[in-house]
From TrEMBL:
Coiled coil: none
Catalytic activity: adenylyl-molybdopterin + molybdate = Mo-molybdopterin + AMP + H(+); molybdopterin + ATP + H(+) = adenylyl-molybdopterin + diphosphate
Superkingdom of source: Eukaryota
High-level lineage: Eukaryota, Viridiplantae, Streptophyta, Embryophyta, Tracheophyta
Name of the protein this chain belongs to: Molybdopterin biosynthesis protein CNX1
Record SUPFAM superfamilies: MoeA N-terminal region -like
Pfam assignment, any one: MoeA_N
UniProt function note: Catalyzes two steps in the biosynthesis of the molybdenum cofactor. In the first step, molybdopterin is adenylated. Subsequently, molybdate is inserted into adenylated molybdopterin and AMP is released.
The protein's Enzyme Commission number: 2.10.1.1, 2.7.7.75
Length: 113
């Protein structure tokens, strides 16, 4: 059996007091530069931002349909699809038609009246 006679017995403190003590004593470490492999398990010291937006066009965040709002309710033919990976160039929605747009699909859709 272990001898604990050298361990000082103290009263328990609340979790809030323990947290306060830790935050008063703890210090932030300075940022360091490490390889990607050595970064596993570490926390970024600052945000990383892409130099260019990805994808490089406005993209849909949900599957859905691009419609001409003034058409109102009804059934309309789907004349084109805009899927993730295409740039949406040349996609035109005219009154009485709709375009199917998948998640990640380009939202560079031209509406003609």
């Amino acid at each position: 059996m272990a001898d604990h006679s050298c361990v000082k017995s103290t009263a328990m403190i609340s979790p809030d007091e323990a947290l306060k003590t830790v935050l008063e004593v703890a210090q932030c470490l300075p940022p360091i530069v490490v390889s990607l492999h050595d970064a596993i398990g570490k926390v970024l010291a600052q945000d990383i931002r892409a130099s260019d937006p990805l994808p490089p066009y406005p993209a849909s965040i949900k599957d859905g349909y691009a419609v001409v709002a003034s058409d109102g309710p009804g059934e309309y033919p789907v004349i084109i699809e805009s899927r993730a990976g295409n740039d949406g160039v040349g996609v035109t929605v005219t009154p009485g038609t709709v375009a199917y747009v998948t998640t990640g699909g380009a939202f560079l859709i031209i509406f003609e009246s």
